Write the structure tokens for this entry.
Amino acid sequence: MSLVRADNVNLYYEVVGEKVHIDAVDAGAVSATVNTMQQVVGSIGTALLNALATTR
């Protein structure tokens, strides 16, 4: 799971225990990128599971 966290002025992107500092001006772009990648990975996973289910 990923998380975008703000504490005072600092923004951090945290995924699998790694923390990366994000400038406040880039927060929207980072949030959009994280959401898009989660949707893409979820779609790929669903397609793979569907392919496995229908071939057996």
Summary: The helical segments are 27-55. The chain has a mean pLDDT of 76. The chain has one domain: 2-55. The two ends are 31 Å apart (CA to CA).
